[in-house]
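Form 12-C: Joint structure prediction
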Amino acid sequence: MVNRSELVPTAFKELPDITGIRIYTFETNTKYKKRDDLLVVVFDKGTIAAGVYTSSLCPSAPVEWCKESVNYNKIRGLVVNSGNANAFTGKRGVQTVNNMATGLAKNIGCNIEGIAVASTGVIGEFLNESMILDAIETIDLRMPTSSWVDAAKSIMTTDTFSKLAFKLCKIDNCEIIINGIAKGSGMIAPDMATMLSFIFTNANISHSLLQEILKETTNISFNAITVDGDTSTSDTFLAFSSNKAKHRLIEDINDPKICEFIKSFKEVAINLAKQIVKDGEGATKFVTIELEGAISNNSARIIAKSIANSPLFKTAIFGEDPNWGRIVMAIGKAGEPASRDKVKIWIGNNLVASDGVVVANYNEEVVADYMKNKNINIKINVGIGEGYDKIWTCDLSHQYITINADYRS
Amino acid sequence: MVNRSELVPTAFKELPDITGIRIYTFETNTKYKKRDDLLVVVFDKGTIAAGVYTSSLCPSAPVEWCKESVNYNKIRGLVVNSGNANAFTGKRGVQTVNNMATGLAKNIGCNIEGIAVASTGVIGEFLNESMILDAIETIDLRMPTSSWVDAAKSIMTTDTFSKLAFKLCKIDNCEIIINGIAKGSGMIAPDMATMLSFIFTNANISHSLLQEILKETTNISFNAITVDGDTSTSDTFLAFSSNKAKHRLIEDINDPKICEFIKSFKEVAINLAKQIVKDGEGATKFVTIELEGAISNNSARIIAKSIANSPLFKTAIFGEDPNWGRIVMAIGKAGEPASRDKVKIWIGNNLVASDGVVVANYNEEVVADYMKNKNINIKINVGIGEGYDKIWTCDLSHQYITINADYRS
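Section 2 - Result
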């Protein structure tokens, strides 16, 4: 039994309704017992969507479906099941996705290209879709809907808490709602902990603008977190807009009227991304890494990730050991330009190393004391240029080994 | 207290002497107490050498010295200290290396460019070289030498056993000795577990041929192992030849007379590399990964390392869980060409997945039983081309976390 993460944030009680977006959750008993494990969202006509997916070259059948077949200009439904990823399941897996999309499309009366599908859970096992199809068949748009909290709970796998976030903002004086849910724990464990996130809004924007915003957002949110550096076959980040807000249609990312929306959208995604790190498998510390002085932002990202993914760095954080030597090691192995003799490292507000050596007045006691915090900030300047990046990660603890070594046995 | 690795191999009692190569070990109390922590090797005139170093862009002062200043055509000495890596120590670190080389050069009467230096241990702390210089001063070539076993022990840091290997072979009917020692545990922990290896022989070969052989060998030995994917600031692999064997000088790698020597040299290095994996921090399983069907050998290496370095794969091995889904995940995240629907995976002799799905007659019980072995063989065919690679790694256990989280505290 895995305990709730020590880093669980204060939970949202509920998110606001968005007209034209209906949530239904079901207990299908496909894998889990005594909990909802199927989420169906039905959208009014006029809804548009956008998607970003795993970079894995062995993606799951639902990811292939969403990438290749879904019509994001005419989206009508989303089906998400938890417990089985329908990945590495060959032609039978493709047929299963098709059956799930067909089931909902028939029920609500649309083309199957109007239905997005996402699945997470065990990979390499065939998904028995019969109970899922039965549940989809019972949907009647006049029946009571489920809540956003229900939705967030129904998509959980090894998550120890449900993940929700929202922001309100204005476009041209119209109230805009941005609701998000996510799941993931161990960013990207392929078994039961793949990252999924769905954001829902009512802004009146084009599909291609939403796609642009989604891409920008992914880079500074879900792509800026890492738990164990492993990449799942199923990672999926979708955004949907009912387009029901009364302002004029916005299509250009440089339109000043969309600026506040983009900022709020990013805040929701970053909030969800941080929650995933806080629920990282076995996490006891939440670590922010700021990397400056790199030759480019991309180079800063590579160095920051080299640090964040280093098992030695992560175990030192778990051990509350201000072992900045391991940061130097991880900078060195990143293979990116860095000036060893100009590197500066801060742990919290403490400058510990400067100009290629430990600072003269280094006080290990003070820094060791800082390491006892739940939130640890590390800043590094690699002394080359203006490239900057900020990412979030967690430590590597005994509990990570326990969860992942003992999971299937 | 860390216990001896469960995977410790049968130890060599001693290696044969090589005329013209004198070993001296000392207890300097620089970092460790009550054990030798300094190795000095003195070579007769005529000895040549070759070197391969860490790819880290933040290398230690001794690595910079060896790469930039040492004259491998006229090598006379090697100084290795354990407990302090003299890395990230700025100008003072450079001076320390210079002092160590000067000390031995003065004593034996040669240029300081004739002295190679290697240091491993804590990084970012200044190395107090005074006790080391005192020890070097006492060396008198008429005094009794230390043994190869002493040499291997004196360079250990977090190693739980000393690492030695040797082979005898012939060049043109002359008996050739190839002796090797190594240290490393957690391939590449920067604190106290950096990889060092030194091979010594009497073959009469040119510096540039030895360098070619060393490079080829590194690729299939020390570069084909991984414990935690972390790369140290200090990794160093040096080879020395007294050139005293009576056969004619060999300079060409295609000379048929050198063929058996190259094979034996590689065997010594592979033997040492495997010992390092077996002493991997917290290792309980020795894992061989064969990757075939890739687009190139280089691509096969990238995919094999993606699997070997995946924390999820490694924890599954520790948990004795035949979780081939994590192998698929690691193939997918490697970013190299692979045909998802043609991938084949063997665990031991058991084909578990084929043509993109689990095999029809998959028997988890049989495969789970195989996972209880100490030596685990995994073979993967990614269904694209003829590229092949073989690497070795170990599992990721609770003991790894304990060693690395609790080390400095």
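Section 3 - Comments
Chain B touches chain A through 70 residues (CB under 8 Å). The domain at 286-405 of chain B is CATH 3.10.20.340 (Ubiquitin-like (UB roll)).
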